[in-house]
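Sample entry (372 residues):
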Amino acid sequence: MADYAITQVYPSDKRSMREVEALLNHEGIRLDRNLDYTCALVDDAGDIVATGSLFKNTLRCMAVSSDHRGEGLMNTVVSHLVETQYLRGNSHLFLYTKCDSAKFFGDLGFYEIARIDGELVFMENERRGFEQYLEGLKKAAADSSGVVSAIVMNANPFTKGHRYLVETASRENDRVLVFAVSEDASLIPWKVRKRLIIDGTEDLANVTVLESGPYIISSATFPSYFQKDEESVIRGHALLDITIFGRIARELGITRRYVGEEKRSLVTGIYNEIMKEKLPEAGVEVREIPRLTTEAASNTASAAAAASSAMASATEADAKPVSASNVRVALQQGDFETLKKLLPETSLRYFQSDEAKPVIDAICRAGDVVHY
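Predicted structure, serialized as tokens:
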């Protein structure tokens, strides 16, 4: 029987990374774009026969060469990855796997959270993790009587467009639950994004801001290694989101979800269309709100009162959408006149403060900031 050694593979080791990628490709898996640790199991001839990777508190891109099946090599890889996570201080772990591998990982102590039949299964290593998350949401949401709606937002950062979306939902429903995506995968740090959402909505008495936790996954960190192309990744992310959100909605009595219209982003456009098709099956109506424009936002004191103006302006050739991407571009350029048009007073005050200087410096160093 061959002897095997497990070792970390660094991104700078191009030869080994090519071998890892070739092994993954042979097993029908693509190398994910979000990885911060990769290991390889090497045989006594120096060939990589198994691999696995990490990204934050998730296990990803795990594969064993088909020539070495039945030797227990995946157990070795998973044990190594879990130990590495514990050494990092991560004890609550998650993984994505193909449907036909879910039982194997179940035997290793992982529990199913959600499944997209024929595509992937989302799992965690805590038996009641998701149930405890739902219990925590119920306590944080407090009163959920009447018509309850929800918004999921990254808010990178919180703009007048986000405020307009929340105001619209606030006006049309008894309660609005805003789920702030809490993954730290954005140029604006999570603590800042959360604070700006809370500050920007605190005058709306029927709005509650909740943390998404690890279960509402942003598109920035959704795994892409099982899907064959970008559209499949978007579809997979939307279907997983719908499956998880449907369970959250049932628990909290949510019957509406509000999303912003996105004509310029293929990703968001596809995502919204899938939500509009599938979420009603879970008893949740999807309301897509036209994007606020700079003209409407600057000419009207209340974004919600500007609804008709926003829709009319959207047809004008010079109308520009209020977007977080445009805010980040303006921050790079130090264009505070444009920022006044795009940001509510609460967000503008933050970016004018000394506290924001490290964040603005990071945005300036980022290069292309027109993205999710």
